[in-house]
Specification:
This protein is α+β, with helices and mostly antiparallel strands. It is built from three helices and three strands, in the order βαβαβα. The chain has a three-stranded antiparallel beta sheet with strand order 1-3-2.
């Protein structure tokens, strides 16, 4: 399974909101750097999802109002 980095969250609370939504939607995800985001605000927690869930996750992120956190995809 190929993981794609989808978004970077500068604040832990933003990442927590998305974690809750993705869990409810049964989308598997990986959130990296959560400790550093808490210790050093602005360092960013990176959200990754499987390639098959990418489009659905991007839609959820936009609907939740976190579009500014999206990582541009090639």
């Amino acid at each position: 399974m190929k993981l794609i980095e989808v978004a970077i969250f500068n604040f832990p609370n933003d990442a927590a909101v998305l974690e809750s939504i993705l869990s409810a939607e049964k989308i598997e995800y990986f959130l990296n750097n959560t400790d550093s985001a808490i210790i050093v605000p602005g360092s960013g927690a990176t959200l990754s999802v499987s390639e098959k869930d990418l489009d659905r996750t991007v839609k959820i992120i936009k609907e939740a109002g976190f579009e500014q956190s999206l990582i541009p995809q090639d």
